Amino acid sequence: MAAALEPWQTAAPRRRRRSAPRPSRGREAAAPDPEADPEADCGVVLLRIREARKDLLLSDFWSLALETINSCLTKHLEQLKAPEGTLAEALRNLHLDSLPDTSAVTPGSTPGETPVPGTCRWKCVCYGIGNFATCVTARHQLTFLLLFLEKCRIPRRHCWVYDPLFSQLEIAVLNSLGVTVLSENELREDRSCSHRSSPCLPAPQEGCRSVGGEPTVFYMPHCGTALYNNLLWSNWSVDALAKMLIIGNSFRGLEERLLARILQKNYPYIAKILKALEELELPETSQYADVFNDTSVHWFPVQKLQQLPTDTWAFREEPDYQDCEDLEIIRNQTRDPSATDWNSR
Prior knowledge:
Oligomer: single chain
Strand order of the largest sheet: 3-2-1-4-5-7-6
Largest sheet: 7 strands, mixed
Helix content: 25-40%
Radius of gyration: 20 Å
Order of helices and strands: HHHEHEHEEHHEHHHEEHH
Structural class: alpha/beta
């Protein structure tokens, strides 16, 4: 299947917007595409992804969004003390208004698989894009991810994707695109009943991925608040958070929408990190208003992390969410064995 794919061709902060509530991840976010055939095969879905890619590349949103992400990544790399010749050089060489020469691309090859000499080893993790085979919004979000990997020269095999809503068709499509599909909802490896605040509760955690000491971009458009809280909990240290960049729901928007006591009680890790993050919103355009609304790029400067009170890092209690009314989280589920485990990398 991979050999039959056509090579992909690459073609200031503003006031806080107060948009309508973001679409919920899951069934609401995966509203059926009226033009989609539920029985579509991989070829049809891949064609629709290519069409979405062309539209995205021609939009003002893409160039503006890439400039925003580029700005954040460049600052993030500075604090990682990346040597000359790393991803910083690749970012400086991005040409937002031009397309690369695709004649040099081998038919059937996957863009980004040829490493740039000296490139910083980035990883990317994607959660919650939903049913892209039948949902236009999810398809645009997947297309954005693929373009982002290409522009930042992150090999697709270094991108791990998970959503419990994926169909067998969608898993097959993702495998053909070269990304790594996770087989199960991720829990913290060191978690046990003795670590939990309420040992009798069922395992509630999803998205508990540790950066493992390597710079990691988390792409999580329109995910539930608990998922971001879990991710922070799983990386609750200065060193780990300094290596993380999150593209997802605006943390500042959460602060504005939720009462302070609710945020602190139900999502304590988000509440505690607000003073130590930098956030830039993705641009707002009418064409993608429902796709990337309330989406920002977040990173955590070391200087700000180190200025937090010492007891901030001593707090490591596992979230339980038992009092959350609108919990958008999915209990641990095992996916199809055809998908790939993170531990098998």
